[in-house]
Amino acid sequence: MRIFLTGATGFIGSALVPELIQAGHVVIGMTRSEAGEQALKDAGAEAHYGTLEDLESLKRGAAQADAVIHAAFDHDFSKFVENCEKDKRAIAALGSVLAGSDRPLVITSGTGVGSGEHGEPASEDVFNTKHPNPRIGSEAAGNALLEAGVNVCVMRLPQVHNPFKQGLITPLIAIAREKGVVAYVGDGRNRWPAGHLSDVVRLYRLAVEKGERGARYHAVGEEGISSREISEALGRGMKLPVVSLAQEEAQAHFGWMAMFVGLDMPASSTLTQRRLDWRPTGPTLIADLEEARYV
Fold it and tell me: 44-90, pLDDT tens digit by residue?
């Protein structure tokens, strides 16, 4: 297939490009820069200039493809709500080109949207419209496309990691470096799910090749690692003290990250593994944190 990939030069996208090419697909990667164009060409992909703000560029990219993977997202969390709205518009634009065909569109969300109401791990078959994360708008946009006949499915991401980057843990490292201490909230028993980058990109490929219309998939290798365990690994690696903070201290210490640090959001991938015959085999989050270089 010719696959249009947004976010093609990002953390996940740059690993997804060779995964798709090695499987025999042609990748049209979206970029906004000459450096990105060169990186895509060096990886064996075609380059398409565009941005999330330029909806016409998104439509042109999708129009020349047999399938679309939308992995781009603006991670400026100081404008998180605004960026979630931007993602909704991008999804709608991509879907408008695919309407009336069976060409698949894989969009991206977070596992928290599948959280239940009683602390059980998030499930693929749950869409929690009451979840406080504004990213639920991405799935709402996908639902609207589904009702319009678009072949759309959802990839829900946990903390995606390798030794160099670890999702929301990466900004926690920056905060710890600034504050001189690694902190967690309360008893640190709240859990975050994780998935190794190599497993995540393999699942994206399986979703675009074999995904079912309307399905939701969880790229989860580990259901939940406690924030205390994560903090202790960071403390060892950064050679910093590890402390517990009260909830009322979180905003002052973590800033914009305060909305996330205390959340308990375990997630299961049991249904995903069964439906797409996917088995995560990559290193654990703690193993990658132990291998990370903090200087």
Answer: 999 999 999 999 999 999 999 999 999 999 988 778 889 999 999 99
What residue type is assigned to position 185 of the chain?
Answer: V
Q: What is the pLDDT of residue 134?
A: 86
**CB-CB contact of 55 with 93 (8 Å):** yes
Enter the DSSP assignment of 205.
Answer: H
Cα–Cα dist 188/151, whole Å: 41
In this predicted structure, what is the pLDDT of residue 79?
84
Q: Residue 1: what pLDDT?
A: 97
Alpha helices in the chain (DSSP H): 13-22, 34-42, 55-63, 80-98, 136-147, 169-179, 197-210, 227-238, 250-254, 258-261, 270-276, 285-291
Q: For residues 112 and 94, give the distance between their C-alpha atoms in angstroms, rounded to a whole number.
A: 24
- Between the CA of residue 42 and those of 91, 196, 197, 205, what are the distances in Å? 28, 24, 21, 20
Residue 69 in tokens: 């993977």
SS3 of residue 17 by DSSP = helix
Q: Please name which of 73, 52, 72, 49 lies closest in space to residue 61, comparing C-alpha atoms.
A: 49
Q: Is 259 helix (H, G, I), strand (E, B) or coil?
A: helix
In angstroms, rounded to a whole number, what is the distance separating the alpha carbons of residues 187 and 170? 21
